[in-house]
Amino acid sequence: MASWAEYRACLQDKKFLVSVFVGVLMLISSMIINFYAGIYTVERASNSVTDVILSNTRTMDVDGIFIYGSFLFWIFVIILCFLRPNRIPFTLKSIALFIFIRSIFISLTHLGPFPDQIYINPESLINKFTSGADLFFSAHTGLPFLMALAFWNQKSLRFFFSVASVIFGAVVLLGHLHYSIDVLSAFFITYTIFHLSELAFKKDRAIFLNG
Fold first, then answer.
1. Whether this model's pTM surpasses 0.90
2. From the centroid of its chain, how far is CA 182?
3. Which of 12, 18, 107, 121 could serve as a FRET partner for 46 with CA atoms 20 to 30 Å apart?
4. What is the distance between the alpha carbons of residues 190 and 193, in angstroms, rounded to a whole number?
5. How far is residue 188's CA from residue 48's CA, in Å, rounded to a whole number?
6. Which positions, given as ranges, span the membrane (predicted)?
7. C-alpha triplet 22, 211, 187: angle, nearest 5°
């Protein structure tokens, strides 16, 4: 955990504050783009297709983990960032880049949801972030893996985030909320996004690692 002196130093560092502000703007912008991309995918959604996993497994009621597990996960990430404020800029910007790139992907592929997917209450807060037709690729799988890569040098966090990624991947498959290709591709695409983030935000990554 950061000391009060470290917090004070961050608050007095104009470059750090500007970087955080830019990260927040990037995150908000990416979420707005994602929102409209989600609307577009719903309007353009076509028929569902068969899937080697979904077609051979029954749907399981995993909406509790899908919804509340996601919120608990992000509360944990927020706590990690506030414990070490040096983590904030890179975390914000890498997540923003992930959401932006995923918005492009979901706009390109218009498969309809699998017909027997579990019911998610439309009033649920999570539906503010997903349209249900934004399938390729799985954010529930990719974002925890992105955090695993970001915290790779810390063994316990690397293990936690990697396990979370696999669990959420299994959850969306068991609930028939994503096709298997959405889940499997998320690991490969996220790996690329992480390295793009390292290239694009070198100074923030250095601060993340050295703080």
1. yes
2. 13
3. 121
4. 5
5. 24
6. 16-37, 65-83, 95-115, 135-152, 159-177
7. 65
